[in-house]
Amino acid sequence: MAKFQISRRKFLTASSLGLSGIALSGCDAFDSGLGIGGGLRSFLENANGLTYRAQRLLAGRNALAPEFTEADIRQPQRPNGVTAPDDDTYKGLLANNFADWRLEVTGLVEKPLSLTREQLQNMPSRTQITRHDCVEGWSCIAKWTGTPLSLVLDQAVVKPQARYVMFHCLDTIEQSLSGDIKYYGTIDLIDARHPQTILAYGLNGKPLPVENGAPLRVRVERQLGYKMPKYLYKIELVDSFASVGGGRGGYWEDNGYDWYGGI
Amino acid sequence: MDTVANNQSAAKADGKDTTLIYRQSRWTRLTHWIWAFSLFFMLLSGLQIFNARPQLYIGKQSGFEFNNTILQIGAENTANGPRGFTQIFGHRFDTTGVLGWSGPPGQETQRAFPSWATIPSYYDLGTARVVHFFFAWLLSATLLIWLVAGLINGHIRRDLAPRLSDLRKLPRDIVDHAKLKFHHTREYNTLQKMAYGGVLFVLLPLMIITGLAMSPSMNSVLPWLNEILGGRQTARTIHFTVMLLLVGFFVIHIVMILAAGPINELRSIITGWYRTDPPEKHDQPTERSV
What we know:
Chain B: One of its GO terms (molecular function) is heme binding. The complex is a heterodimer. Chain A is of the alpha+beta class.
């Protein structure tokens, strides 16, 4: 009975703490603990690491995202984020139909590359009809054609210490006091080498339009849309997020999204 | 029944012959409160996530060039200024102040669910996802622990599994509930079994399944899941609908506790001990004949 009393007291203490947490939930006190870098936020973010490990364990390296049929393509691919980059560099490249555009492959590679559109398009390609899932909650099915990223990585020969593929983009996503921020993001080498991870230059049987990321965008079919940068011009192999923007692995990650977007 | 072994007679000052019984095991009590806590945070963070795309669709994808929207919460400009609306199956309702358009007077903004119903209170999809997925793990793990404990200690078989006699008692049970006439016994009545069993074995598993069906990575593991459910956007719609059912359960649950005697009911889910009705009030023939 004594033991029971203690557990009850403990329980009442714990539940009153919980209730006060509930009472505060709508308040600034709770909100502020959830800011990036906050203790509460960092603790709760551990769950995403758990999700990453659990899903990697279950899905492995090669489990494919569902693919659909032509009949499922019922509308143009919904563009999101930046849809018409206002950057001079981009507009210059676009004016020349991307003839001067190159895809640079740099960082922790044995053979840095500089590929033209023709060189990329002459490599073996993959076409897939997949569902694009936005973090906001909507989905859209489209047919993507591109070069498997793994082929490009093989050509550049990735150094053993490389852990992530960083994508550098031409579009300014945010104008901050310290200058324009161009979109950037990272994926790990498991997703980079996934059979459906392609550098897409074609959409629904036509060249990739500007609003969907011309001349080249990434498709990472087992993750959400914010993990698939558009207006790509450079791929950099890195060993950590230290040199990646604010250090959380991507533009949206630096603004609070989880680095792993498989859920 | 093993309840006899747990019975502890208590002579009350008022002379009533009531009996305190140990009704809820520590597993039931602990998991109950973790669920309550988790569901609170999952609801409010979930409404924030919904606010990022306050529309529900049927099918594999969201219709932008075709219409498969069944619910939409939004705001529109009218002659009387901005108004919030909720549109369900094509029927539009003015929900200004709560859904679509809300906020302190003079500072209203366009948001599907109002600030007081979301975590965080301001618009922040990333943070809501962090909160939602943390409690998703906690809720799922607790459900698993409860299931194992409940199978081992007999709680599920003894207290929740429906029996033939439950079916027989159902009409009488409905009438009693409608009259707010409650029998305080160790056993759950038929409607209780249906409600608790429905939440634990239907709604919460369905919530987890439809949640997983929205994960693009899980779709590569279980590609058939969305085919069964009718597509990712249908899964999202089911997820939202189950949320409404869980909120409905919560409201009825609280009303029933208040009506049945909140002190006694709360004591049983906090300490485990529950005061049952005096035996003469039981309408079991064997007890009556004593």
